[in-house]
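Case study 2.
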Amino acid sequence: MSNSEKANEAVIGERNELAGRVAEALKAAGFNALAQESDRKSDAGGALVLIDPLADSRGGVFVQWTVHASLHHTVAEKAHNGEIQEPVFQHFSFVTEWMYTTMIAVLESAGFRAVDAEDDMSPYMVRVEDRAL
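Prediction:
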């Protein structure tokens, strides 16, 4: 199987349905839940629900916390200027780590299986599955 082979339409449909239920559960808990494409341009931040269409073990439904654009831009500007000891970095890390933990707890409570996605490129990514799996 090719590393970039997409899952079949039935599997993609199941993932879309799961992603919708995940987004609804997060919204019910008070999160701003963003769809992977349409809301991604939002500056508000929140729980970004992603669907990876790959057929292999990397595919599935994922959730990642995104901070508000103002915090993101401040961190980027400080990094660009070499001001890496600024307190904003600690704040950014604090928010990201705690929202990751909180999203896992909320999704587990809502009946999903939510675990670390084990993605080195996105260390605070959450993999979400139906609990029955």
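The mean pLDDT is 89.
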